[in-house]
């Protein structure tokens, strides 16, 4: 069963249909469902294999595994934005834990806290959470594998700690806080910790024969923030749009979402095309940056990928333990759409309420003798770039309430831009992290450290 919404050309939809059909057949998945969203709207959806009769495939729940982590990360960052914690805080300052207490909250979000990859045995994904009733029961014999902050090492117990952090600061279970503060505001009414009909059953398919056996579906208890959730392609398409495009300050501010999408963990030597932010995986493919997450639990694999710059996202689920390459299919669906129907730029519109003082700041500036250009962007953002695309350190700067700007990108990320004035009130320089930019190269009237002479003047007055 396949279908598509208005918004894609018929030949594009047919190409997506074929990719889904091929992935389901070659991956030997009892069922596979997928959706592509563009500009917050589902423009294609498809389904292959065995699905519950009489319901729309986009409403069928599948287990999404570690995509749960990204939702947990959103909840943790809400706490930070409310001022209840700092990402540099040790988790032990908020949660009573026998292990991992010295890791910071940021390190746990980015899997650089040094904790073990898995919870204490037996195999936690296939056994009930009652075997690990307390937080201390999550940790095995050697819970710390690396020094904090030194390297990326994926850790499921790290997200159990983050779930406990949410519980501690909200005073109620992680799942309840997530439901009320993230899922329901985003319209994700079919996402939760337990399956609700209609839902897919999880299967393991024999590697050498076309036979299968059912997989267990356990409530994993304390490990739930790492991989418990069930969802639908319709719900996760909404979440993908939020994650990549923002626009919901009642859930998480756009600036915080952008922070999530920035690399926060060093890549492995062989993995320079991929990385990890704060609760999201990052992938550089075909010249574009993709953000999202993959997930797996016994009987299920899932993926969510989005291109924020080109405003396209893909969600893929399959009810099979292994073999179905949902992640590869998701990235290929995005590429297929963008190759056939490239994203159009947003239409240019004039600033409805321009600030003349900021407009006057724009134009050429010089760092010493190096020419730069300052542009005014929407939202009073200043964009300082080397003139003509030449060499140099450029950055975008967001406005602050005290009349300064803070760098968002590149070398000047986090640094302060100040507008300097002469004694008569005239703007005569920019101070960017103590570097002085002037309207002409080394303007002698501006406060250039070390002084500046008029051009052509010789040392000591001699020519």
UniProtKB/TrEMBL annotation:
Pfam families: Beta-lactamase, DUF7586. GO terms for molecular function: hydrolase activity. Residues 16-338 form the Beta-lactamase-related domain. InterPro entries: AmpC-like (IPR050491), Beta-lactam-related (IPR001466), Beta-lactam/transpept-like (IPR012338), DUF7586 (IPR056008). Keywords: Hydrolase. The keyword Transmembrane does not apply. Residues 355-439 form the DUF7586 domain. This is Class A beta-lactamase-related serine hydrolase. It comes from Streptomyces hainanensis.
């Amino acid at each position: 069963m396949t279908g598509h919404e208005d918004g894609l050309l018929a030949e594009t939809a047919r190409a997506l249909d074929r990719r889904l059909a091929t992935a389901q057949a070659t991956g030997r998945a009892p069922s596979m469902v997928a959706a592509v969203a563009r500009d917050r709207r589902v423009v294609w959806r498809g389904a292959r294999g065995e699905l519950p009769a009489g319901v729309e495939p986009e409403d069928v729940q599948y287990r999404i595994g570690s995509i749960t982590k990204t939702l947990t990360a959103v909840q943790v960052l809400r706490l930070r934005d409310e001022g209840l914690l700092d990402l540099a805080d040790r988790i032990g300052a908020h949660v009573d834990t026998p292990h991992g207490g010295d890791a910071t909250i940021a390190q746990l979000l980015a899997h650089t806290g040094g904790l073990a990859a898995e919870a204490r045995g037996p195999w936690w994904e296939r056994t009930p959470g009652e075997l690990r009733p307390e937080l201390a029961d999550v940790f095995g014999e050697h819970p710390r594998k690396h020094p904090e902050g030194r390297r990326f090492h994926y850790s499921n117990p790290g997200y159990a700690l983050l779930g406990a952090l949410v519980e501690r600061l909200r005073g109620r279970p992680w799942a309840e806080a997530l439901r009320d503060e993230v899922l329901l505001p985003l319209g994700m009414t079919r996402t939760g910790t337990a399956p609700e009909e209609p839902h897919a059953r999880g299967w393991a398919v024999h590697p050498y024969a076309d036979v299968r056996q059912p997989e267990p579906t356990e409530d994993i208890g304390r490990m739930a923030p790492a991989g418990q959730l069930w969802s639908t392609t319709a719900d996760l398409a909404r979440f993908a749009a939020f994650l990549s495009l923002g626009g919901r300050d009642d859930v998480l501010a756009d600036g915080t979402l952008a922070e999530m999408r920035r690399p926060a963990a060093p890549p492995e030597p062989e993995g320079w095309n991929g990385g990890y932010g704060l609760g999201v995986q990052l992938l550089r493919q075909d010249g574009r940056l993709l953000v999202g997450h993959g997930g797996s639990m016994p009987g299920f694999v899932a993926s969510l990928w989005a291109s924020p710059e080109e405003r396209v996202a893909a969600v893929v689920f399959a009810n099979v333990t292994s073999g179905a390459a949902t992640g590869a299919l998701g990235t290929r669906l995005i590429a297929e759409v963008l190759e056939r129907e490239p994203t159009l730029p947003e239409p240019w519109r004039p600033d409805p309420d321009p600030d003349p003082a900021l407009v006057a700041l724009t134009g050429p500036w010089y760092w010493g003798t190096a020419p730069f250009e300052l542009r005014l962007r929407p939202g009073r953002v200043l964009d300082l770039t080397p003139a003509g695309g030449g060499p140099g350190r450029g950055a975008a700067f967001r406005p602050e309430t005290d009349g300064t700007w803070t760098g968002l990108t590149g070398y000047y990320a986090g640094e302060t831009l100040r507008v300097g004035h002469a004694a008569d009130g005239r703007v005569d320089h920019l101070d960017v992290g103590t570097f002085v930019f002037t309207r002409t190269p080394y303007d002698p009237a501006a406060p250039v450290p070390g002084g500046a002479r008029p051009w052509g003047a010789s040392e000591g007055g001699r020519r």
